[in-house]
Recover the amino acids of this structure.
């Protein structure tokens, strides 16, 4: 038995039809490539990383090459990796690697640490000979220009409201189960548009943006500040421990996130028995999965 569920971010994918189409194609490609690994008996860790690398490189998501820019126009990315064999690692605020998810997995499997940030993480990526990220694409640069103009002079309250409306989203994550019964989780993001330099979101925070045990794996997307306040991934795990029900674990934790901040959160999860689920309280969430019966990829909507 093998399973995978991938997300392309909770938020509002309004407006750009070409971008939605491009992103759907990329998530489908990520699903096919990771399923091939699982079908051939490969590990859930390899499947998750493969899916996320394809999506980081596609430029359509807020991760890797498509990452959003901070208020100074610079990319600072967060990513995390975990598996049921106890490897857990994350990187925060990195500017160097083309694929932060590969660096996060390296931290998980080869260092004594759980989280490396900023310059130290970047110089590790360079020392390891990892590929360096290229300049942001035209779409991102254009969007930055539009947003920064509107942003200047805005009151703090209005800025927070805008973040809640559409300055976050399109982050990526995946959880998988392989034929040997091993679980893995991966998450990668550029964070939120116009964040202050040095801001770190929920994505690399164990228990916040992701959580994994021997029998359950979960990851989050949405407004990191809300997700961290509620330790939402850990909250989902607690509910799973009580009930053994993957769907219920997400129902309860997404509701909890809604109480902290409405329209803030989406989650995907999977357990060792192969039950998969996703749930979100935002307008949209892009997902792709194989649940043992069918392959599916779509932009799902709460509207
Ligand atoms: N959770 C990410 C962050 O706050 C953003 C996202 O999921 O879109 O950094």
């Amino acid at each position: 038995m093998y399973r995978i569920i991938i997300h392309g971010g909770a938020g509002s994918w309004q407006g750009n039809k070409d971008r939605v189409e491009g992103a759907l194609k990329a998530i489908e490609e990520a699903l096919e490539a990771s399923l091939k690994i699982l079908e051939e008996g490969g590990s859930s860790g390899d499947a998750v990383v493969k899916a996320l690398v394809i999506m980081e490189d596609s430029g359509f998501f807020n991760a890797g090459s498509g990452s959003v820019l901070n208020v100074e126009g610079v990319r600072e990315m967060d990513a995390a990796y975990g598996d049921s064999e106890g490897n857990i690692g994350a990187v925060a605020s990195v500017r160097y690697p083309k694929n932060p998810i590969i660096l996060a997995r390296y931290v998980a499997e080869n260092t004594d640490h759980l989280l490396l940030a900023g310059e130290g993480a970047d110089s590790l990526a360079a020392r390891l000979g990892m590929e360096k990220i290229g300049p942001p694409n035209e779409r991102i640069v254009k969007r930055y220009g539009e947003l920064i103009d509107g942003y200047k002079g805005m009151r703090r309250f209005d800025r927070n409201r805008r973040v809640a409306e559409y300055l976050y989203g399109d982050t990526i994550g995946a959880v998988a189960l392989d034929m040997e019964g091993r679980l893995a989780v991966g998450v990668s993001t550029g964070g939120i548009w116009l964040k202050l330099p040095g801001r770190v979101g929920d994505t690399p925070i164990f228990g916040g943006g992701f959580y994994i045990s021997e029998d359950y794996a979960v990851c989050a997307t949405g407004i990191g500040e809300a997700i961290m306040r509620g330790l939402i991934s850990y909250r989902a795990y607690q509910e799973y421990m009580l009930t053994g029900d993957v769907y219920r674990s997400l129902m309860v934790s997404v509701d909890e996130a809604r109480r902290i901040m409405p329209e803030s959160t989406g989650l995907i999860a999977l357990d060792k028995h192969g039950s998969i689920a996703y749930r979100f309280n935002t307008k949209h969430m892009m997902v792709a999965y194989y649940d043992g019966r069918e392959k599916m990829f779509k932009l799902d909507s709460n509207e």
